[in-house]
Amino acid sequence: MINKILKIDWILMLAMLMLLGTGMAVLYSLSLAGISGEATGFGVFWRQVIFASVGMILMLFFAFNDYQTLRKNSTPVYFATLFLLALVLVLGRNVRGHTGWIGFGSLRIQPVEFTKLTLIIFLASFISQKKMELGETGRLIASLVLAGIVISFVMLQRDLGSTMVLVGIWLGMTFVSGISIKKILFMLLAGCVVAFFGWFHLEQYQKDRILNLVNPSSVDAKGAGYNVIQATIAVGSGGLIGKGIGHGSQAQLNFLPEKHTDFMFASIAEELG
């Protein structure tokens, strides 16, 4: 056990603890000001304490165990992921336009967040094991079908952002698997064609979110573009050195929507620079 502890990358560990501590300090200050939709802002803070503690325990567990265990169990993990995603479609809660949450009392979890990790584990195992059995094209098609099943479940949840992340994970895993430049160019071309025709099948609010990336004020500065504009103001308001913990006007006065989740980065930038 001592030898395993000594082998831990302590620079990486300290960097992670500093990031975690920074996030928790700003979240505590946001809780003092109150968080909309919560009976008490500190409920959010203490939930994050629980999540952070569970995350630390899992990190140590996997650090002290052979990663080959994940490789051997990647297929059951894949099917367990599909089961969770299917369960969301049946029992999930609709939150801000998409059904991606499962609630246990006051605790809510979003299975797609676990899916992002399990898809990486499964694809890494699948591609490495099938490298000798399947040709490059066969491996590419098989991995696309298997990843596509997972992505389809997430698309049914109407979660465009997570869908794009999962597609990016599949693309990244196939790129690093050593496929030829010719097939990479073909994939990029096919992706552009799919994106072009897929645009016409998106809901209007999904189109607005994509357009907001380019120019938030071009859609509706007080509607669809409001969140991004307020986040930009928060980051600019913090400047180089920040306003100090508990003194971020945009976040503390609730001008910044989703200040403790989607726009946590903007909250940190405003208070710490």
How does this model look, in words?
The protein has a three-stranded antiparallel beta sheet, covered by helices on one side. The chain contains 13 helices and three strands. The radius of gyration is 21 Å and the shape is globular. The mean pLDDT is 83. It starts with a helix and ends with a helix. The protein is 69% helix and 5% strand.
Keywords:
273 residues, mainly alpha, three-stranded antiparallel sheet, 13 helices
Helices and strands in order, then pairings?
Layout: H1 2-6, H2 10-33, H3 41-63, H4 68-72, H5 74-91, E1 93-95, E2 98-104, E3 107-109, H6 111-129, H7 136-156, H8 160-176, H9 181-199, H10 204-214, H11 226-238, H12 249-252, H13 264-272
Antiparallel strand pairs: 1-2, 2-3
Question: Summary?
Answer:
This protein is mainly alpha-helical. Helix content is 69%, strand content 5%. The mean pLDDT is 83.
- Enumerate the spans where pLDDT stays under 50 for 5 or more consecutive residues: none
Structural class by SSE content = mainly alpha
Shape descriptor: globular
Mean of the pLDDT scores? 83
Topology pattern, helix = H, strand = E = HHHHHEEEHHHHHHHH
Ends distance: 40 Å
Please count the beta strands (DSSP E, at least 2 residues each): 3
Q: Report the radius of gyration as a whole number of Å.
A: 21 Å
Strand portion: under 5%
Q: How are the strands ordered across the major sheet? A: 1-2-3
Tally of individual helices: 13
Largest sheet: 3 strands, antiparallel
Helix coverage percent: 55-70%
